[in-house]
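Session log. Operator J.P. requested a structure for one protein chain; no other inputs attached. Running the standard single-chain path with token output.
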Amino acid sequence: MNDKRRRPQRLFTGTHGTSNILRQAQSLRERQSAWNAMLDLEVQDHTWLVGWSTGALEVLCQSSVWHTWLRRHEKKILKRWNTQFPDTPAHSIQASVKPWIAQLPAAASPPSKMKLRGTLHNGPQRLREAGEQMTPPIAAAVRRLADTLEQLQAEAVTRVSAKEKGAAPSE
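Structure written below.
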């Protein structure tokens, strides 16, 4: 039987001690900045170096888009890594995807009690009112959305009106 209670207890040695973990964390922090320097600007905020061992770089990606980007640029990144860290050469990148939701600042998040429900004809107006409470870039996007919704509703009304009158669809 493989009963854990009957196995001898292992004592933590220097290889598992706090000082070793701290050293590894400091090394990872230093190499994270070097990792970012190897990447293009748009990728730096979406990938993190998690570790390196046995010739492989372990990387965490925000989404499959960045995972694909790493695959496309793997040779270039490995060449830069091996040039900068010849003592720990790497031959491959092992990337995994871990999606997360970025936290927006409190001022940018919409009020929690905002309700956009109502009749269809009030939708664009309610969107515009809600946009006034948001930051300028988001408010501009909400205004564009309201304009688009208004335009789509007008087209839908025109189509329904034409069908009621027995007109043929125009195309």
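Operator note: The beta strands are 47-53, 56-61, 92-97.
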